[in-house]
Amino acid sequence: MAMSRPEALQQVATLPWYHSIDLGDSVVTNGQYDHRPYLSHYGLPVDLHGKTVLDIGAASGFFSFELERRGAQVTATELTQWQDHDFAPTYQPDQTPEEGYRYLHQPFDVAKQILGSQAQMKWINIYDISPETVGVFDVVFCGSVLIHLTDPLKALCNIARVTREKAIVATVIQQHESERSIATMVGHESGYCWWIPTRACFELMAVAAGFVGIEWMSDFQLNYRDQPTGPYHGVLHAYPTTDGWTERTRHRDQVCAAYHDATNEQSIPEMLANVRRQEQEKANVTVGRALQAALINVRQQEQEIVQLKDLVAAYERGRFIRLMRFLNRVRHPRS
Ligand SMILES: C[S@@+](CC[C@H](N)C(=O)[O-])C[C@H]1O[C@@H](n2cnc3c(N)ncnc32)[C@H](O)[C@@H]1O
């Protein structure tokens, strides 16, 4: 529902803001994050006049409004309701459905009103994004959404399908082991964050999603507002065609080749041979143990036989002594 600027300004302090947004007149929203000092890491095009831009998972809209400020015609998307998140079945959301609804809907609306923005909001899950549902855009921006998805690769495939020139994708990445294509699963601990890829893994995911050119933009720690902690992020620009590449853009084949050695430390036949060798070693150990047990058994039985022989010998000795005593008594009967 449309509201006047004074009405909207009155609401600002009461709303849950994800972003710190400068609304003018010295009013800055009380965001969980302040992206303004980090903006250069994203490599947003300076001039977006005449371009259409899709901002997926826009939250309170900092990037939508920034992209619009650079001249773009912006469409933002968000989840309709909080429960639409990929939450683990055991996860207790930190917001009630009503609070979540407010978080997703109101801050964007209020900021849009105050800034006089023309950005259009579409309520749609990233898994449902396609040329048929939202259309195709010159630039697609997707910031810090993949970390919240159980299937980030599917989401990247959808992003590729609706990108005409370039996708700008940021997500939480591992700070170390950047050359190895691995991802750490954290869903069992958090219930709302899922995969943390290395840089190599993130780039290869973009390749797998169908992008032909990848440009690594930056990696940096995105701190919470006024706190020296926050998730480590990577930003890449991905191109669905060879148009618009910069000298830093690498072809998908170069990206694959760059990470081949670090990732494929063993070829698949080597891996299989290793597995077979390990299984054989396990079988050898089992057979060895069984043989040892059998040998111990045989030794025990041998000992028992020796003991039995001793017993028989002793018995025989006793019988002989008793016989001699008997004969003695027969020969020398007591009168
Ligand atoms: C961490 S915030 C990032 C906000 C903004 N894109 C940025 O970079 O600052 C993640 C946003 O993604 C949205 N989101 C989470 N799962 C989503 C999904 N399956 N489809 C679309 N948006 C989703 C959340 O509602 C949330 O607003």
Question: Summed up, what is this model?
Answer:
The chain is α/β, with parallel strands linked by helices and 335 residues long. It is built from nine helices and ten strands. Bound molecules: S-adenosylmethionine.
Question: Which features characterize this protein?
Answer:
335 residues, alpha/beta, Rossmann fold, 8-stranded mixed beta sheet, two-stranded antiparallel ribbon, 10 strands, binds S-adenosylmethionine
Helices and strands, in N-to-C order? Answer: HHEHEHEEHEEHEHEEEHH
Q: Could you say how many structural domains there are in total?
A: 2
Q: Please estimate the helix content.
A: 40-55%
Question: Regions with pLDDT < 50 over 5+ consecutive residues?
Answer: none
Biggest sheet features: 8 strands, mixed
Describe this structure in words.
By secondary structure, this protein is an alpha/beta fold. It has two domains: 5-263, Rossmann fold (3-Layer(aba) Sandwich); 266-335. It is built from nine helices and ten strands. The strands form two sheets. Strands 3-2-1-4-5-9-8-10 form an eight-stranded mixed β-sheet, sandwiched between helices. Strands 6-7 form a two-stranded antiparallel ribbon. Strand 4, helix 5 and strand 5 (163-172) form a beta-alpha-beta unit. It is elongated, with a radius of gyration of 37 Å. The termini are far apart. S-adenosylmethionine binds at residues 18, 57-59, 63, 78-79, 85, 104, 125-127, 143-145, 148-149. The site of S-adenosylmethionine has 17 residues, from loops.
